Amino acid sequence: MDWKGRRQSDNIEDERGSSPTGGGPLGGGGFRFPGGGLGGGGLSFRTIIVLVVIFLVLRAMGVDVIGLLQQSGALTGGSSSPGYQQSDNSGGTAAPANDEMKQFVATVLADTEDTWTGIFKSMGQTYTDPKLVLFSGSFPSACGTASAATGPFYCPTDQKVYLDMAFFQQMKDQFGASGDFAQAYVIAHEVGHHVQDQLGILPKFNQARQTMNEVDANKMSVRIELQADCFAGIWGKFTQQKGILQQGDLEEALNAAQQIGDDTLQKRSQGYVVPDSFNHGTSAQRMKWFKQGFDSGKLSDCDTLNNPV
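Above: the chain sequence. Below: its structure as tokens.
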């Protein structure tokens, strides 16, 4: 993908230097609603009650709980607070303010802005650009904590895409999905969820899922995710028309779609698949719908909600 020297988006929020650290193995990403979907944030009511009881017991024993918390930095947000740091304690430093990977992400995001602005204009609508937050480890979002464990995701509440670029390295090392166009596909997929939000599709799904059981909600989630794949394919089509794709780029994206299909991921992690738990789609489905968007370039050919997937 010939991306260097192209316009870069200003809608990047680089929080890598101030992000909480931690996390775990990267996951599937997608979209997330507050208190649901891929998870929420905060403490449950029961947890709060337990903490209050522990606090009172320690106070009764003469333990200065407040003092201990202040010393640890947990109340002040100081550098000694567990899990928070301004730089890598292993001896490294925060990523440069305009490193090459950030430039790449900003360029891809700019291309998605150009693509969807044009498509929405042709429909007589106005496209509002999303923000893309770069973080390391974990970071608070309006839909709960963004972390390495969730992978990239889109939050409709604040209309932001959250991305820990360590996911790209895992795609290469663990999933065997390398290449800049494979990485661009991930970004375009999350922006695809923003497009769904702009079109009113995500709000309708969020309302409908309130009355669904888990199996039905997963089935609908698959359709939503496959449509985001198809929208990513539409972006790929417009990118191809600009003449910036190189030989093998399409194969990179299709390979990435294959490697992160629910069935492939489950076979890799547990040796068997549980179809009722799928929420992103099989490898074959994800490849099919990305390719459909790429070949067609039309929103009307991405109706995964009313057609067999």
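Residues 214-241 form the longest helix (28 residues).
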